[in-house]
Amino acid sequence: MKILVLNCGSSSIKYQLFNMDDQSVIAKGGVEKLGMKGSFLKHKHADGRQIVFEGEILDHKSGIEYILGVLTSSKYGCLESLEEIDAVGHRVVHGGEYFASSELINDEVIDALVKCTDLAPLHNPPNLKGIYAMEELIPGIPQVGVFDTAFHQTMEAQSYMYGIPYVLYEKYGIRRYGFHGTSHRYVTKRACELLGVEYENQKIISCHLGNGASIAAVKDGKSFDTSMGFTPIEGLVMGTRSGDLDIGVVTYIMEKEELGLKSANTLFNKHSGMLGLSGVSSDMREIEDAKDSGNERAKMALDIYNYHVRKYIGSYIAGMNGLDVLIFTGGIGENADTTRAGVASELDYLGVKLDESKNNGFRSEGVISTDDSPVKVVVVPTNEELMIALDTEKKVKEHVKL
């Protein structure tokens, strides 16, 4: 079975084509600057060949037409025809309370996604555009929606409810939804495979650390709690997002700086976090370099970052009454050994024993805790695209059986 995975953003479309017989990537790439001057498609074949196509790519439909065209191109492609694509899997950011698992897309699912647009106004509309485009370009092809929020639907009210009037939850669905669910689901399962332990009998904390960052507590194979909330701004200090913030601070700054809602939203989402604290960059590598050069604000920002990660880990250990596996993933989690050390080295009293010799320079998949560590510390590169492909394959096969 060949499955095309699409991740449609507001100005980009990322794609990967999988051969599910061996879970290999046949080709991958993306459209950038969609609808803007200088738009282009970058395509990479499994054999290493790469090509960049520049052109006027006005919308998601034309962007996907470009993708399908290059996949079937006699010169650059890897398919004889579009009939070789058996199904399409879509990354969908928000499924609200409608979806606790991936779903085969039909009119009912689309109606629910439209209703979720208010919850993710920047993300769900382009996700839907990708679905509509595939319906037009390859009529009748099975499509599956894989929702970032679905994994966290197993949380109980103690984890997802806010201390606001209950009527606001009933009217508007205001609650913690959490994000990065596909990543957390993939890495927690993969870590248990590496360790040879039963997924449904573990207490796991997954740290997805990238420009956007979240932590998930997974107990007995189900999401128990997670740091992102109603929106992705809550939780950890991130690249440009503030993370947890006193609501009084928000209203105070809005009053003093005479900011409207749009400007305040931009301030806390685009100009805060590590960028705002360090004054250097949102890129952890550049902040590390600045710290090494003696920049005190960069050092402060890194200390704050590591502390907030440790604080969430500690709270989730308390919530689950223990911990068996600690996972680092995401661009920072997978590559920044100094961040992993800054977080894990001060958790030894909780049974986390980091092996410095294993951690230093580690950029792969594996265990970086000592052999006698009660809590296993694991680095797992995330693979959301493969998770989407696996879910798509499963849902399509279930549908065929029906």
UniProtKB/TrEMBL annotation:
GO terms for biological process: acetate metabolic process; acetyl-CoA biosynthetic process. The keyword Isomerase does not apply. ATP binds at residues 14, 208-212, 283-285, 331-335. Keywords: ATP-binding, Cytoplasm, Kinase, Magnesium, Metal-binding, Nucleotide-binding, Transferase. Its cofactor is Mg(2+); Mn(2+). GO terms for molecular function: acetate kinase activity; ATP binding; magnesium ion binding. Mg(2+) binds at residues 7, 384. Its EC number is 2.7.2.1. The record marks 180, 241 as: Transition state stabilizer. It catalyses: acetate + ATP = acetyl phosphate + ADP. It holds the Pfam family Acetate_kinase. Pathway: Metabolic intermediate biosynthesis; acetyl-CoA biosynthesis; acetyl-CoA from acetate: step 1/2. It is found in: Cytoplasm. Substrate binds at residue 91. Catalyzes the formation of acetyl phosphate from acetate and ATP. Can also catalyze the reverse reaction. Homodimer. This is Acetate kinase. The lineage of its organism: Bacteria, Pseudomonadati, Bacteroidota, Bacteroidia, Marinilabiliales.
